Amino acid sequence: MNTKSHKSKFAFVTTTVDSKVKAATMARNIVASRLAACVQFVSIGSVYRWKGKVESASEYLLLAKTRCSLARNLIAFIKEHHSYELPEIAVVPITDGLQEYLGWIIKETGPIRTQRSPRVDHDGK
Question: What pLDDT was estimated at residue 107?
């Protein structure tokens, strides 16, 4: 693995939501928007302090794999589409990884690409 070529180029962006449906919807919308190449989500239990009380909740943790250059846009997207008053949104740098995987993140993120229609000759071929 070559740390120098991808150092600080990639990050995990995490957030939590309160249902599996919200997790799946947010994950799909993030990937469809090309703000992350992949978003995983898992069921977790959380214990936290909120407004002076210790609370607990069942949540879904989302882990988005993205480029550092897209992290601010992804944070804004999550904040805009989140139902929590104060959502958890954290960015964790990826310091190293499989080069092919990191290259895949580059390929699958960024500007939305339109797919070209196959060329059809005027005679229908």
Answer: 96
d(CA 63, CA 33): 16
Domains of the chain by start residue, with CATH: 3-108 (3.30.70.120)
Cα–Cα dist 114/24, whole Å: 24
Q: Which pLDDT score, from 0 to 100, does residue 111 have?
A: 79
Q: 3-state SS string over the chain?
A: CCHHHHCCCEEEEEEEECCHHHHHHHHHHHHHCCCCCEEEEEEEEEEEEECCEEEEEEEEEEEEEEEHHHHHHHHHHHHHHCCCCCCCEEEEEECCCCHHHHHHHHHHCCCCCCCCCCCCCCCCC
